[in-house]
Amino acid sequence: MTILEYDLSAKDSSKAPTRPLPPTPLGYNSPIWPADPCLNQVRNGVQFEVPRRRGSCDSDKRRNSFMDIGQKISDVGRTVKYAADREIKGELVKFSKITTAHGIPMVLNSRNICARCFWLTLTVMSMIVCVYQCYLVSDKFNRKDKIVNVELQFEQAPFPAITVCNLNPFKNHLARKVPEISETLDAFHQAVTFSKEAVKDLEEKTNARYRRSNSPPGGFRYVQYEPIMSECECDEDAKDCVQKDGIPRTNKTYCICNFDRQDSTAWPCFHISRWLEAICPECNDIGYCNLPETNGTTELPCLCQEENYCLLRPERIKRIWEIRGNEIPEEGSPFRADFMAQLKMLGYENMTDEVAITTKTKEKLILTMAGLPVHRRIALSYGKSEFIRMCSFNGQQCSIINDFKLHVDPAFGNCYTFNSNQSNPMMSSRAGPSYGLRLMLYINSSDYLPTTESAGVRITIHGQSEWPFPETFGYSAPTGALSSFGMSMRKVKRLSQPYGDCIPIDAPLPENYIYHNYIYEPEGCYKSCYQQRIIRRCGCADPRYPMADNNTQICDSLDPLSRNCLIVEGAKFTKKNTCSCNHRCSHNVYTTTFSSAKLASGAFRANCKEKRSSEGCFEYDGNNAAMVEIYYEQMSFEILSERESYLFVNLISDIGGQIGLWLGASILTIIELFSFILNIGTVYCRNRIKNSSSELDFTEKRRSSSFSRNSEGKPSPRLSDYGTTSTPRVSVIRRHSVNSNFTDYSDDEIKKSREPKRERNHYEMS
User: Are 457 and 447 in contact (CB under 8 A)?
Assistant: First the structure.
C-alpha cells in the first residue's frame, strides 16, 4: 500500500507533483491502507487500483474544497448517527439478554424462527394477562372497600339520657279554653261525625282562597261569648227555651243561644224570631256589644235580642251539633249545604275513614299548638311533679326536681329528660333492673284530648348531647303495666373520606342546622333541610321545628293559605327528597328489648292509704299509672369499627405477585428497566450534542476559509490547489489480521516507512 506526500512549498499548485512512494514492509501481514481511496495500492509487491465510483478520482472533476469539507462533515454526521443507532440497538440487545424477566431472553436466545415465535407469543400473552390482572387489582383498590371489626369490651358503660313524655300532649280541659285548639277539635268532631254518604253528595268545588269564616269582625279574633245555633224546646210565647244538642227540624225548634267558649255552655237561648241583626257602635273583648241607639266610634255587625241583649255577630254562626252532636244534617235540611262547605274548608273533603281523619287532625293540632308561645304550651301540658311520681336510679332514690330537665316537644308537649348533663353523665354500677332507671308515671287518661288514640308514655333513649326526637325514635309503654326496656350499647366508628362519607366529630355544624347546642344527627339534618324548603317556598317557617335564623317569620297555622302551603310542600318533600344527610363517624347506638307485665297496683295502694284518701289513690289505678324501668342487660358493649379492607401495601403485594407469576419479574427487574431507559436517554442526548457541535464547527470553518488571507493580501492556499481531494493529514493505521484491532503508529515510524518508498519511486520514475 502507498503513502502520499505533498509538497506544500510549490507556488503553482497545478504543477505540484504527486509521487507515489514505494512501500516498505514493516513486518506485519496486513498492509497500511491509504487515507485517499483514489490511490493505487501495493499488496505483496503488486500495485493495483482500488475499485471506486465513476468520476470520483478524476482530476478535471474535482470538487471545490468547501464542498469537500461539507461532504466530510456530512460523512462524519452520518457516521455519528449510525454509531448512535448501533449503540442504542446494542443497549437494547444487551438489556434483552441480561434482564431477569423470563420471556424476553428466550426470544433472543432461540436459534430458529419457530422457537422465537413461540416464546414471543407466550411473552406477549403473559404481558396482556399481567396487565389485565393488575387492572383488576387496581380497581379493587380504587373501590375503597371496608370491613367491620367487632370488639367486645367489658367495662362500665355510661348511662344514656332518658326522655319521657305523655302520649297526650295537652290537658283537654285546658286546651278547650284556647280558641285555636277549640276550633281544631270542633272541626275534628264534625269530620268524625260525617258519614260516607255525605261525602258522595259533596259536589261543590271552589278554588277561592279561604279566610276564617268564623272570625268575629272588627279585629276581634277570639271572644269569650258568641251566638250559636241549636235545637230548643220553647214555650208558646218563645221567650223561654231549653237548649238541646240536636239539629232543628222546624223553625219552631230553631233558636240561638249565648255560647261561652270557656266552659262550652250555651245559655240563655231564645227563639230565632227574638233575634235581630243590627249595627252596634261598639263591642268589648268578651263579645258583648252596646245597643245600636248608643254612641260609638265604630260600626260592627251584631245580633240583638229583644230584651236589650246584643252579641258580636261572626261571619258564620256556629252550630251546636257540630261541636257536641253526633249527627249531621239530613238530605233536604237547610243546614246540609252549609255543613258540606264547612267540611271542605276545614280540609276534610272526601275523608270518611276515622283513622285518617284523626291523623290529619293531630297534624293540624300540632301546627296550631306550635304556633303558640312556648310559655302557653308549657302551661297547657303536664308539670314535672304531676307527671313523674316516683323515681330511682342505681338502687338510690333520685330527685325529680333536680335530675329531670324540661324538653318541650311539638307533638308530645312537656317531656322530661333524665341524665341530661353532658359534662357529668351518671353511671350504672351493675346490670339489671334494680340498677337502672325506674319510674312511676301518672298520665291522667281522663283528661285526654279526643285525638289521642292510646293511653301511655313515650320513652326515648339517646345521648346527652343529642336531640331526643321522641316522635321518630321513641318507644311507647302502656298504662296498667310494668314495661321493661333492656338496653345494650354499641359504639360505631366509621371511616371518613375517601372510604366513606360520614361527618367527622370535630366538623362544624352545617350552616342551616336548626338544632343549636346539639351535635349533628341525620334526623336533624333532614328536618333542617325541610325547614329551609318551607322558608323558600312559603316565605315562613314551620312552627313545629326550630329556625336557624330568629328573624324568620313563623307560618300562621290558622291561615288557610299558610296551612295549605305547609301541607303541600311537606307532601312534595316526602316524595322527592333531595337532601344529603350522612351519619357521624363516631356515635353510640342503643338497642332495646321490650317486655311487660301487668301492674299490681295493690302494692302502691298500701303505701298510698297512709297519706291519701281512697279517692287520692285512684291515680294509681291501672288506667292512669305506668311503671317503666330502663337498664343495661349486661355490663359490656360492642365496638363496631370500620377499617380499610385493601391497603396500598396489599396493592403493591398483589401487583408484584401478578408480575412475578406472569412475567417472572421483580422489583429488581423494574430497576433494570429504569436503568435501561436512562442509558438510552443518555445515548440520545449525547449524540444530539455531538451533531450540534459538528454543524457548528462546519459553519465556522466555512466562514474562516472564505474570508481569511495571508500576509501578502492573497487568499490562503486551499486543499484543492494541490491536486487532491484528501485531507493533508494522513492517518496511518495498521490492522492485525488475527483480532481485527486497530493500532495507531507514531510519527517516527511513519517517517521511516516513507524514506525507502521515496527512493524507490524516484528510481522507477527515472
Answer: no
Model confidence at 404, pLDDT cuts 50, 70, 90, reads very high
CB 617 within 8 A of CB 124: no
Neighbours of 244 (CB within 10 A): 19
Q: Is the dihedral of CA 535, 536, 537, 540 positive or negative?
A: positive
- Residue 165 counted as domain residue: no
pLDDT bucket at 762, cuts 50 / 70 / 90: very low
pLDDT digits (tens, 9 = 90+) for 687-718: 777 777 666 665 666 566 554 544 444 454 54
* Mean pLDDT (whole number) for 312-330: 81
Task: Report the distance separating Cα 167 and Cα 589, nearest Å.
Answer: 24
Q: Determine the Cα–Cα distance for residues 240 and 232; give it in Å rounded to an integer.
A: 10
Last residue of a domain, one of 365, 399, 432: 365
Tell me: do 177 and 57 sit in the same domain.
Answer: no
pLDDT, average across residues 36-44: 49
What is the pLDDT, as a whole number, of residue 195? 43
Residue that is last in its domain, among 584, 614, 636 = 584
Write down the pLDDT at residue 557.
74
Assigned C-alpha cell, 526 = 333532614
CA atoms lying within 13 Å on the CB side of residue 217: 18
Residue with cell 440520545: 684
CA–CA dist 23, 18 (Å, integer): 15
Buried b (16+ CB within 10 A) or exposed e, 24-42: beeeeeebbbbebebbebb
Q: Which of 362, 321, 365 is nearest to 194 (CA)?
A: 321
CATH number at residue 545: 1.10.287.820
Residues 6+ apart with CB under 8 A from 5: 19, 21, 754, 758
Gap between the Cα atoms of 433 and 448, Å rounded:
30
Instruction: Return the SS3 of 28.
Output: coil
Are 42 and 182 in a shared domain? no
Q: What is the mean pLDDT of residues 634-661?
A: 90
Q: Are residues 196 and 54 in the same domain?
A: no
* C-alpha triplet 279, 285, 287: angle, nearest 5°: 50
For residues 548-568, b (16+ Cβ closer than 10 Å) or e, as one string? Answer: beeeeeebebbbbebbebbee
pLDDT at 599 over 90: no
Answer yes or no: is 469 within a domain.
no
722-754 confidence digits (pLDDT tens) = 444 444 443 343 434 334 444 444 555 555 555
Residue 734 CB contacts under 8 Å (≥ 6 apart), including other chains = 26, 28, 30, 32, 742, 743, 745
The label of the residue with cell 274548608 reads 345
What single letter denotes the amino acid at residue 723? G
Q: Name the band, by pLDDT with cuts 50, 70 and 90, for residue 156.
A: confident
* Whether residue 329 sits in one domain with residue 186: yes
Q: What is the pLDDT of residue 703?
A: 61
Q: In whole angstroms, what is the distance from residue 220 CA to residue 222 CA?
A: 6
CA distance 273 to 379: 43
Contact 481, 595 (CB under 8 A): no
- Note down the domain range covering 237: 172-365
SS3 content of the chain, % helix, strand, coil (to 5): 40, 20, 40
- The CB-side HSE value for 120 (13 A sphere, CA atoms) comes to 10
Q: Quick check: is 274 in a domain?
A: yes
User: Do residues 327 and 191 share a domain?
Assistant: yes
Residue 398 has pLDDT above 50, yes or no: yes
The whole-angstrom separation of Cα 12 and Cα 605 is 151
pLDDT at residue 604, as a whole number:
56
The C-alpha angle with vertex 366 and arms to 365 and 371, in degrees rounded to 5, equals 100
Q: Is there a domain that residue 723 lies in?
A: no
Residue 597's pLDDT is what? 92
Q: How many domains does the chain have?
A: 3
Q: Give tens-digit pLDDT for 438-454.
A: 999 999 888 999 899 89
> In whole angstroms, what is the distance from residue 293 CA to residue 493 CA?
80
